[in-house]
Amino acid sequence: MRTAIGGLAIVLTAATAHAQPAVPSRADQLFDEGRELMAKQDYAAACPKLEESQRLDPALGTLLNIGLCDEGLGKLATALAVWRQAEELARSSGETKRQATAAEHIAALEARVPTVTLEVASPSPGQQIAIGGRALADSAWSQPQPIDPGDVAITSTAPDHTPFATTVTLHERDRAVVTVPALAAAAPIAETEPAHPRRALAYGLAGGGALAAGVGVIVGLTAKSSYDRAFSDGHCDRTTLACDDAGQSATDGARKRGTIATVVTAVGLVAIAAGVAVYVTAPTAEHPTATAIAPTFSTDGAGFAISGTF
What we know:
Layout: E1 2-5, E2 8-11, H1 14-17, H2 26-39, H3 43-56, H4 60-73, H5 76-93, H6 96-112, E3 115-120, E4 128-131, E5 134-136, E6 145-146, E7 150-157, E8 164-170, E9 175-180, H7 197-232, H8 245-281, E10 291-298, E11 301-308
Parallel strand pairs: 3-9
Antiparallel strand pairs: 1-2, 3-6, 4-5, 4-7, 7-8, 10-11
């Protein structure tokens, strides 16, 4: 079996990549499928199969094919790393032919792979820089970094500093130099003074009051509608204000609901006013308070009684 990439031919058979049992293993099946897809130049589908085969059953032949597949995808820096790994493995195992093949690919790729070199203007304590999501040791910042062609994100962060981010587009053989500016110190976050407990009390009063007032208005409107309907339906006469039994029952009920609506609305308005008063008079600094709230009712209306230390 033979595959040619860029004028370089390499004999990589499944037999040399994996021992062939009577029933092919899953790794062997994936290897064969990957090789067939590479023959069709469907590298995007082939590479994952070869990588999974290598994970299941590591073999030098599979590794060499992964290098070819990455080259076919245009992932030049990735392929270079694979070929270097394959060359080291071939050297350690005494496979001189495969070592020579890997060396040929390495020599060809080193001229094609784009690189990025960082120039860090003024490093900050704890600064970290990543290229394409891969963190770099600070000792590598000034060294050319092989990168696959395409858009590459570069980020720089440091504690208590504003992050820096940029994107560069790399093509084959590019030798990019990116200047990472000094990171500006982040603006300190203003500490907010904790809210006084009486502020929470004020919100509760105002919120509850608004709810009560809303309910009162709704009840009042329904009561008025019932009252007016008794006249429009002919159960009561607007001139004499006389009603039949049905009209009398409807108007009496409407008056009762109207009274309830008035009381509830009044209580709600009082609560809102109390909430505003408590909020306005609440100290900005927290200190112990003793406050009590109790509803009050009488024949003339309803309200809240507030007592305590303010």
